[in-house]
Write a structure and sequence with these properties.
InterPro entries: Cation/H_exchanger_CPA1, Cation/H_exchanger_TM, NaH_exchanger. It is a multi-pass membrane protein. The chain crosses the membrane at residues 20-41, 53-70, 82-99, 111-135, 173-196, 216-238, 259-284, 304-321, 342-365, 385-405, 417-437. Helix content is 69%, strand content 0%. The chain has helices at residues 18-40, 49-67, 80-98, 101-106, 108-133, 144-153, 159-165, 172-198, 206-241, 248-268, 273-291, 294-322, 326-335, 338-369, 380-389, 395-405, 414-445, 448-457, 491-496, 498-519. The protein has one domain (45-453): Na+/H+ antiporter like fold, CATH 1.20.1530.20. With 545 residues, it is an all-alpha fold.
C-alpha cells in the first residue's frame, strides 16, 4: 500500500494496518461514487461507466498527488496478480455466463478467425512497425525481444471496455463478433507474450515456428476442454447431489467456486485461464444454472453480474489512479523531451490503427465468402464499427507492459519508464477518445430503425419471459420436453437460416439424447417436497439465446 495514516489506536481495538484500511475504504467509497454518477449518466450517448470510473480515478489520483506533495498518486501499486487472479476472472466468467450462445457459436469461425489469425497479423504489423519506427526515436537500448513484446502488448484489445460501449440487445451481431474476438484475442496476446519471453530468438527456425503454432493450438484446445469439463462437472454434481434440498447457499457456492477453480487450474497448468473460465461460464449457463432451484437461479444471475460490475469499476479506477504515478513520469521527464514522449505514443497509436485495419477488412472479406446469404455477411459499415470498437487498449496491455518493463511495479531505466508511460498514455487515449466516439459512430452508421432490423434478422429471438419458455427456437410447433407451443418461423426466415439451423438441429438431438439426461439443463426441474413449483415466479429471463 502507498498511503499511510497516522491515526491513534483505541485501547480495545486489535492491531491493524490503517494504511490498508484507508486504501480499501477509499476504493469502496469511489466505487459508490462511480455507481451514482454512472446512474445519472445512464442515458448519455457519449459516456459509459468505464470512462466515468477512469475519469474519477484520474481525478482522485490528482488529489492524492497534491496531498502527498507530488510524491505519488495511488494508494495501491499496480499488481499483475491482483489483475489476473482477482479482477479478470469474474468479468470474463460473467461474460460467458450471460452471452447469447446461439449468436456466439453461429459466428464462432469468424470470431476465431479474428481473435487468433487477426491477432497474429496485428502482432506482426506492430512488431515490424516498432522495429522500423520506434527504433529511430533513440529512446534507449531495446532489443528484438522488446519489439516483439510490444507487438504482443498492443495486440491485446480491451474486451472489458467492449462490454460497456456495445449493447448485446441493440447490436447482438456486432457484440458477439467484437467481444468474442476480444476474449480469444486476449488469450492469444498473453500466449504470444509468454512465448516471446521464452523464445530463443538466436536459434529461430521453421521447425520452432511450427512448434510454436502447434503449442498455441494445443493451448487453445486444452483450455477450452478444461473449461467445458469444469462446467459439466459442476452440472453433474449439482444434478446428482442436489444441494438445494438442504441449502441453496451450497449450490450457489459450488457454482462460484468451481468456476474460479477452473481459472486457477488453467493458470497452474500454464493454460489460458481467460479461455477456460469463459467456456466454463457458457457451459454452466447451459446446464448447471438449470439444475439449481429457482431462488438460486435468480441469486447466481445477479451475483455474477454484480461481482463482474464491481471488478470492472475497480479496474478502471485502479488504472486511472496509477496513470499519474510520479516515479515513472519523473524519470521520463528528466531523460527525454516532451516531444519524444508524444512521438512514441503517437507512433504506437498509429501502429494500432494500421494493425487493426490490416486484418479486420481482409478477414471480413474472407468470412463473407463463406456466407450464403447477404444477411449473414459483414457489411462495410459493420466492418468499420468492428475496426473502431477494437481499437481500445486496457488493463491487459498495462499488465503485460509492467511484466516486461518493470520489477515489482518499479523501474529506474529511462527506456523502460518511457515504455510504461507511453502504454498508459495509449490506454487512456484509446479508452476515452475511441470509447466516447463508439456509441455515436454506431448511431451514425446504423440508425435506430436499422438496429431493430439487425436484432431480428441477425440475432436470436428475444429472451423468454419464463423459465418454462423455449430458449432457442428449433422450428417445431411443440417442444417435446416441456410441451410448450412454439411459433413456427416464416418460410423465408427458415430458408435463410437453413444451413445454421440444420447444424443446430443435430446438436439439439445430441444434446437431448445424451447430454441432458446426464448433466441436466433446460427442462430439468429440481423438486423439493413442500417447496414452490418452478412455474411460480418466472422472475428472470433465460440466457440460452
Amino acid at each position: 500500500m502507498e498511503l499511510g495514516l497516522g491515526m491513534g489506536m483505541g485501547l480495545g481495538d486489535p492491531p491493524a494496518d490503517y494504511g490498508s484500511i484507508a486504501a480499501v475504504g477509499m476504493f469502496v467509497a469511489l466505487i459508490c461514487v462511480c455507481i451514482v454518477v454512472g446512474h445519472l449518466l445512464e442515458e448519455s450517448r457519449w459516456m459509459n461507466e468505464s470512462i466515468t470510473a477512469l475519469i474519477i480515478g484520474l481525478g482522485t489520483g490528482g488529489v492524492i498527488l497534491m496531498v502527498s506533495s507530488w510524491k505519488h498518486s495511488r494508494i495501491l501499486v499496480f499488481s499483475e496478480d491482483l489483475f489476473f487472479i482477482y479482477l479478470l476472472p469474474p468479468i470474463i466468467f460473467n461474460a460467458g455466463f450471460q452471452v447469447k450462445k446461439k449468436q456466439f457459436f453461429r459466428n464462432f469461425m469468424t470470431i476465431t478467425l479474428f481473435g487468433a489469425i487477426g491477432t497474429l497479423i496485428s502482432f506482426s504489423v506492430i512488431s515490424l512497425g516498432s522495429l522500423g519506427l520506434i527504433s529511430r526515436l533513440n529512446i534507449g537500448s531495446l532489443d528484438l525481444g522488446d519489439y516483439l513484446a510490444l507487438g504482443a502488448i498492443f495486440s491485446a484489445t480491451d474486451s472489458v471496455c467492449t462490454l460497456q460501449v456495445l449493447n448485446q440487445d441493440e447490436t447482438p451481431f456486432l457484440y458477439s463478433l467484437v467481444f468474442g474476438e476480444g476474449v480469444v484475442n486476449d488469450a492469444t496476446s498473453v500466449v504470444l507474450f509468454n512465448a516471446m519471453q521464452n523464445f530463443d530468438l538466436a536459434n529461430f527456425s521453421s521447425v520452432k515456428f511450427l512448434q510454436f503454432i502447434g503449442n498455441f493450438l494445443y493451448l487453445f484446445a486444452t483450455s477450452t476442454f478444461l473449461g467445458v469439463a469444469a462446467g459439466l462437472l459442476s452440472a453433474y454434481i449439482i444434478k446428482k447431489l442436489y444441494f438445494g434440498r438442504h441449502s441453496t447457499d451450497r449450490e450457489v457456492s459450488i457454482m462460484m467456486l468451481m468456476a474460479y477453480l477452473s481459472y486457477m487450474l488453467a493458470e497452474l497448468l500454464d493454460l489460458s485461464g481467460i479461455l477456460t473460465v469463459f467456456f466454463c461460464g457458457i457451459v454452466m449457463s447451459h446446464y448447471t444454472w438449470h439444475n439449481v432451484t429457482e431462488s438460486s437461479r435468480v441469486t447466481t444471475k445477479h451475483a455474477f453480474a454484480t461481482l463482474s460490475f464491481i471488478a470492472e469499476t475497480f479496474l478502471f479506477l485502479y488504472v486511472g489512479m496509477d496513470a499519474l504515478d510520479m516515479e515513472k513520469w519523473k524519470i521520463v521527464g528528466e531523460t527525454f523531451s516532451p516531444m519524444k514522449s508524444i512521438a512514441l505514443s503517437s507512433t504506437i497509436l498509429f501502429l494500432v490503427l494500421v494493425a487493426r485495419a490490416a486484418f479486420v477488412f481482409p478477414l471480413s472479406f474472407l468470412a463473407n465468402l463463406t456466407k450464403k446469404t447477404e444477411e449473414g455477411k459483414i457489411s462495410i459499415k459493420q466492418q468499420v464499427i468492428i475496426w473502431w470498437a477494437g481499437l481500445m487498449r486496457g488493463a491487459v496491455s498495462i499488465a503485460l507492459a509492467y511484466n516486461k518493463f518493470t520489477r515489482s511495479g518499479h523501474t529506474q531505466l529511462p527506456s523502460n519508464a518511457i515504455m510504461i508511460t507511453s502504454t498508459i498514455t495509449v490506454v487512456l487515449f484509446s479508452t476515452m477518445v475511441f470509447g466516447l466516439l463508439t456509441k455515436p459512430l454506431i448511431r451514425l452508421l446504423i440508425p435506430a430503425r436499422h438496429l431493430n432490423r439487425e436484432s431480428s434478422a441477425l440475432s436470436d429471438p428475444p429472451s423468454p419471459k419464463s423459465f418454462l419458455d423455449p430458449l432457442i427456437l428449433n422450428g417445431s410447433d411443440v417442444d417435446p420436453e416441456i410441451g410448450v407451443g412454439i411459433r413456427r418461423p416464416t418460410s423465408l426466415r427458415l430458408l435463410l437460416a437453413s444451413p445454421t439451423r440444420s447444424v443446430h438441429h443435430y446438436w439439439r438431438k445430441f444434446d437431448n439424447a445424451f447430454m441432458r439426461p446426464v448433466f441436466g439443463g433446460r427442462g430439468f426441474v429440481p423438486f423439493v417436497p413442500g417447496s414452490p413449483t418452478e412455474r411460480s415466479v418466472p422472475l428472470l429471463q433465460g440466457n440460452e439465446n
